[in-house]
Amino acid sequence: MSSRRAFLYTLALGSGAVFTASLSSCANQSDTQSDSHASHVLMPEPRTGTPAHRIAHQYLRDGARIPEPSRTRQCDVVVIGGGMSGLAAAFAARDAGFSTIVVEAESRAGGAAVSTRIGDASVPLGSVYFVSRTPELDALLHATDLTPVVCPEDEVILADGQVVRNLWSDATLRSAIKDERDRQGMQRFRDDLLAMGDALPSYPLAPTLSARDAALDGTSAADYMRRYGSRTADALINAYARSSMGAASTITNAYCLLNFYQSELGGEFGFSRYSFPGGTSALTQRLAKLHADDMQHGVAVRVETNAQRVHVEVIADDGSCVRIVADYAIVAAPKYQLPRLMPQMPAVQRDACAAMTYAPYVTIQIASSRPLQDSTAYDTWDIRPGRSYTDVINPIVLQSSSKQHVVSLYMACDIAERRMLMDDRAFAERVAKVVDEYAAGLTDEQRGSITSVHAWGWGHGIVVPTVGSHNGIAQRASAPIDRIVFAGTDNDAAPAIENAVANGFAAVKQVRLFAGTAGS
Fold this sequence. Notes:
Among the domains are: about 70-110 and about 280-355 and about 470-515, FAD/NAD(P)-binding domain; about 170-275, Guanine Nucleotide Dissociation Inhibitor, domain 1 (Orthogonal Bundle), CATH 1.10.405. Helices cover about 30% and strands about 20% of the residues. It has helices spanning about 20, 55-60, 85-95, 135-145, 170-175, 180-195, 210-215, 220-225, 230-245, 255-260, 280-290, 340, 345-355, 425-440, 445-450, 470-475, 495-515; strands at about 10, 45-50, 70-80, 100-105, 115-120, 120-125, 150, 155, 165, 275, 295, 300-305, 310-315, 320-330, 355-370, 380, 390-395, 405-410, 450-465, 485. Helix 3 runs parallel beside helix 11 (about 280-290), helix 3 (about 85-95) packs parallel to helix 17 (about 495-515) and helix 13 (about 345-355) crosses helix 16 (about 470-475). It is globular and about 65 Å long.
């Protein structure tokens, strides 16, 4: 029996639409009664889904006995994890002349860089853009014959409800931020960030951080921002940290904030962001096609190595066990899984993996028959107090031929909410409350135009650059073990596509050093 959920499925939660009672902004009390004369069109119930987790929980969490292998496959390099980093590693390994097998737990590769179809539109469920045209990324773009497009500038909904574009420019700050202390604090932060140049904290992480960088890692983003005394900057950075770094600015470190946020200042300061119609899944899906014949779908549940080979046990979709025997392994799976996956892991590395934090988050896609959002803004940050979502993506901006209207709300979750994502009813009810909050700011016509609501929940979707994570924890968790090397954004404890790709390529470089082919 397949362990996969339907990718998006309708939740049958009673006889009426889930949103009938919970979305108070969409109907008055008389509308929610079974009155055949009610004129208001009630919203549909949400469709929700999550990545597959049953097999992983069964073997890696609950310790089920691994069955005897029913077949064996062999290769030079086995890559565990078919997200952006694993696919980049597989590409670089094959380019270096190694035969590869990619082990992917989902029915399709891509990790967080996946999309779904809603009407004629391709809508990202996770990753939406990147900011750096690195040599590694350009190599992948060339191989997949993809040309990224530049994303339009952000909008920001300020605490007082103003909607502004190009927030960090002097002209916008003067017109939108009336409080002089608030405005001057934002200008100082912007100018300090621009002036850092080569002193900007960088990735990949050094084996040991300098005293200055260690201090940034040991300081929360919120504490760092206090020196500027700007409540608007505080609110914006907190929303950014929740959306792009997985947790509030009180939890994430200043090192990652400074590295990530400089490129968010916008085109006026020379920074662009890139994507594709439908999001970054355009890249992962083309990379996956390059490895279609090398893909082993299933959950890796055991990785062991000796002086000669690496053995990987994989539970396939049909419940059988496949053994992969390889010269080397690149593990691009999240490191919270590794202590169960790798019984040979040294205790100090096991402790480092356990010290890393992974946050759940949800994306909510709202389809409608008329526009709900500014048609020219790709990402709108909403920093009004009390918002449970941080920003709204309008993917149709990059899809000029689409007739569909759809927006995506990005909702960071507290770690304690991970269980909620595994409870269909609780997940749908949580989605309903968030859509209610968003819909309260729409017109009656816009609310009535909503045709479907979809949500995708990521249980361990994003590594969090917590305070202290960069100066020893990430480095120890990523140390090679014999013939096994590691990739993924969590090599740096920093969740960016650029980190994922760089670490995938770096893992292959390490394999080539082990194999004695680095200079060939």
